[in-house]
Design a protein that fits this description.
CATH architecture: Beta Barrel
Low-confidence stretches: 1-15, 213-218
Strand content: 15-25%
CATH topology: OB fold (Dihydrolipoamide Acetyltransferase, E2P)
CATH superfamily: Nucleic acid-binding proteins
Number of domains: 1
Mean pLDDT: 87
Oligomer: single chain
Order of helices and strands: HHHEEEHHEE
Largest sheet: 5 strands, antiparallel
Number of helices: 5
CATH class: Mainly Beta
Number of strands: 5
Helix content: 10-25%
Strand order of the largest sheet: 3-2-1-4-5
Radius of gyration: 17 Å
Distance between the termini: 14 Å
Length: about 220
């Protein structure tokens, strides 16, 4: 089944970008960019997660694609956290992230990251073939001020089973390196292809619905 025509895609994009009446966000957070990381290393990682400026055009590495991110091999030094990236893929799942020091241990969905799992194809790939990209509370609040709803619930409704293009910062999440296929440790459950993420995501575009035969499109 072919992708839906552009009018359908535009309608979905309008849902993400148009003015809306959605759930009110809590007051501006007091959590600093370094969060509550207990070590210098964790605080440095939190600052990368909490970047609030989008990568400039000159900072985008166009050699970074979803295909490059899932390529097999020891990839800890494959990319740079100082570069931005643009990646196209199919959304398998969207869900609320865990309670973590980057968000000062916030427990509410609005105060936690949104995890988006991307695959190269629309066939519901194995988890160890997926790349994680994340929307942070800072960027949720930034686009909310522009009339866009990036709550986890809204993103799940609009993105799941669709092909998307995400832009944002590259980041190697060493906390999840043992659970990633390319850097996994014996005895660990492998649930992702790589510890590299696009985190934070700064732009989301919907390119089309899943072409999976027999499955209705949203």
């Amino acid at each position: 089944m072919s992708l839906r025509p552009w009018p359908r895609q535009i309608a979905i994009f309008a849902f993400l970008g148009a003015t809306f009446v959605g759930p009110a966000l809590p007051a501006a957070p007091s959590c600093p960019p370094q969060g509550t990381g207990p070590t210098a290393r964790s605080r440095a990682l939190n600052r990368l997660k909490n970047r609030d400026a989008a990568p400039a055009a000159a900072q985008i590495d166009h050699a970074i694609t979803l295909e490059a991110m899932v390529a097999p091999g020891q990839d800890k030094s494959r990319f740079s956290s100082g570069r931005g990236a643009i990646a196209d893929g199919y959304v398998d799942t969207v869900y609320v992230g865990g309670i973590e020091s980057a968000n000062c241990e916030a427990t509410s969905p609005a105060g936690r990251d949104t995890h988006i799992e991307l695959s190269l194809d629309a066939q519901r790939s194995r988890p160890d073939q997926r790349v994680i990209v994340e929307v942070t509370p800072r960027w949720r609040r930034k686009v909310h001020a522009q009339g866009k709803d990036w709550s986890t619930a809204a993103l799940a409704a609009a993105l799941t089973r669709h092909r998307v293009r995400v832009t944002g910062w590259m980041m190697f999440d060493y906390d999840h390196a043992p659970e990633s296929l390319n850097t996994g440790k014996p005895g660990k459950t492998i649930w992702r292809a790589t510890a590299w993420e696009i985190h934070p995501v700064t732009v989301i575009e919907v390119l089309g619905a899943s072409p999976v035969a027999g499955e209705s499109s949203r």
